[in-house]
């Protein structure tokens, strides 16, 4: 069981204690922390230009500065909407496991995790609703966890997916937090999220590695291969969700689906995907979770 | 006679499964996992592109996506009844 493995590992128990203390020390009231101006200027970047999906593409070269600003605005709303949906899905899975057999030891930290994720979902939703009047939707509310050969494999997929999602988001947060071209409110929500996610990612990497060690002891080679290929597909899926035709449509692009396809097929996509998941893939390959 | 649009959808599904050469119109796409949760969004975009319709994610009925015949009925048969 996961708790047994953690209990036998002084290092992981030490990390859990440190992360829990840090969550308590860094606690803040998100409902008072941010300044929410009535509106944010249209004539500026809402997302760092090098992080937008059209960056470096042939399509971007044909767009005016005004259109590029609008694209960055709606792409940022898509990015925060993805956060809202992703957080809802991960909260459901963590709440399902807290204080259940096998998860006794990490449950203390789960309380901080759940509390902080709820607050992140609030400020991302608040941003979307205040400045775009909407949260972009996902069909069926999210992506189901595939049926797994055992509860251990299911937990591995759940926490590996959470980690992949958090690392993807953090790539963007850590850069936008420092980008002086962006409005201070935008920088602040990215900065605060990056600060909290650093703890969640540190925890997630340890937890996923422990669950994988547990799974590996009894799983067949085919089951391990299936886990690896599913997680590779999940990374590609997560990256592709940044290319939302609805955001392109809202930014005034004529043929949004064509633009999405062209961008996904362009060489710039592979480079951007590699940059976003460089550290994640290194970790997943080093641990043997992804082959 | 199947429309060109629904053939685009069928070709996209077959393109993801090189082991298959044909796809009958009553094969359960979601139940058989020919389209799984990670490829469902892409299926929606392929249907939008082929049909010209905008599909509202909030009001999706999964039964409309279960078979090629159901997709054709829901998104390609407008104005023919």
UniProtKB/TrEMBL annotation, chain A:
Please give one Pfam family short name.
Answer: AurF
Name of the protein this chain belongs to: Diiron oxygenase
Molecular function GO labels: oxidoreductase activity
InterPro entries referenced in this protein's UniProt entry, alphabetically: AurF/CmlI, Ferritin-like_SF, RNR-like
UniProtKB/TrEMBL annotation, chain B:
Q: Which residues form the Carrier domain?
A: 1-79
InterPro entries, sorted? ACP-like_sf (IPR036736), PP-bd_ACP (IPR009081)
Q: Which domain of life is it from?
A: Bacteria
Q: What Gene3D superfamilies does its record include? A: ACP-like
Protein name listed in UniProt = Acyl carrier protein
């Amino acid at each position: 069981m996961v708790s047994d493995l953690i209990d036998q590992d002084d290092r992981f128990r030490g990390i859990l204690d440190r992360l829990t203390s840090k969550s308590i020390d860094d606690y803040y009231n998100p409902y008072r922390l941010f300044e929410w101006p009535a509106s944010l200027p249209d004539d500026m970047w809402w997302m760092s230009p090098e992080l937008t999906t059209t960056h470096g593409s042939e399509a971007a070269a044909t767009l005016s500065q005004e259109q590029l600003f609008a694209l960055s605005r709606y792409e940022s709303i898509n990015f925060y909407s993805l956060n809202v949906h992703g957080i809802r899905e991960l909260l459901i899975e963590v709440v399902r496991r807290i204080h259940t057999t096998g998860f006794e030891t990490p449950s203390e930290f789960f309380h901080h995790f759940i509390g902080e994720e709820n607050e992140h979902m609030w400020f991302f939703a608040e941003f979307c609703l205040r400045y775009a009047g909407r949260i972009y939707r996902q069909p069926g509310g999210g992506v189901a966890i595939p049926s797994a050969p055992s509860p251990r494999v299911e937990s591995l997929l759940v926490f590996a997916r959470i980690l992949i999602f958090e690392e993807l988001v953090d790539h963007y947060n850590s850069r936008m937090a420092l980008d002086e071209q962006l409005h201070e409110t935008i920088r602040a929500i990215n900065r605060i999220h990056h600060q909290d996610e650093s703890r969640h990612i540190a925890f997630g990497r340890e937890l996923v590695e422990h669950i994988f060690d547990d799974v590996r002891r009894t799983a067949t080679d085919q089951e391990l291969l299936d886990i690896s290929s599913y997680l590779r597909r999940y990374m590609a899926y997560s990256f592709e969700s940044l290319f939302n035709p609805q955001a392109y449509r809202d930014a005034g692009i004529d043929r949004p689906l064509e633009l999405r396809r062209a961008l996904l097929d362009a060489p710039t996509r592979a480079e951007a995907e590699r940059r976003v998941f460089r550290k994640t893939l290194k970790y997943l390959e080093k641990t043997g979770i992804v082959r | 006679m199947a429309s060109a649009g629904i053939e685009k959808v069928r070709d996209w599904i077959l393109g993801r499964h090189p082991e298959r050469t044909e796809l009958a119109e009553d094969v359960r796409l979601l139940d058989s996992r020919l389209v799984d949760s990670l490829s469902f969004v892409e299926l929606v975009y392929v249907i939008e592109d082929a049909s010209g319709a905008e599909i509202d994610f909030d009001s999706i009925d999964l039964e409309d996506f279960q078979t090629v015949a159901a997709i054709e009925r829901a998104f390609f048969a407008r104005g023919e009844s």
